[in-house]
Write a structure and sequence with these properties.
This protein is mainly β. It is 3% helix and 57% strand. The chain is built from 1 helix and 6 strands, in the order H-E-E-E-E-E-E. Strands 1, 2, 3, 4, 5 and 6 form a 6-stranded antiparallel β-sheet that branches. A hairpin with a 4-residue loop joins strand 4 and strand 5. The longest helix has 4 residues. The radius of gyration is 20 Å and the shape is elongated.
């Protein structure tokens, strides 16, 4: 039997993405901790054509949920989970979109003694 390579995984491509997002975040304090929801969108540019998405002008939509956990008076740990969708709003074809899940962990250290 003959092995067939999947076109999606058989090509190496190098490119970049550049963009700017504007978003809104909603925080709810729970004692000295907080939970937040964030939604954002903005224009982006991708330099490489993909099987699912044409290169060029594109939009990025982001949704995220996270926690801000106070460790002490100047250190916070902030784990988050999110979803991102890229597409060009059907301006050009192909426009099948690129979806990705995002996880992160931020450590915030406040060095300003006025806020301790």
């Amino acid at each position: 039997s003959e092995m067939r390579e999947d076109k999606q995984f058989s090509q190496e491509r190098t490119g970049f993405e550049l963009g700017c997002n504007l978003g809104l975040a909603f925080h709810k304090n729970i004692g000295k901790h907080s939970i937040y929801l964030m939604a954002g969108l903005g224009p982006h540019y991708i330099s490489e054509s993909l099987d699912r998405q044409v290169k060029g002008f594109i939009f990025s939509d982001n949704f995220e949920i996270g926690l801000s956990i106070s460790i002490n008076s100047y250190i916070m740990i902030c784990p988050n989970f999110g979803f991102r969708h890229l597409s060009n709003a059907s301006i050009r074809r192909p426009n099948n979109g690129i979806n990705s899940f995002i996880t992160g962990l931020a450590i915030i250290i406040n060095t300003d003694s006025r806020y301790r």
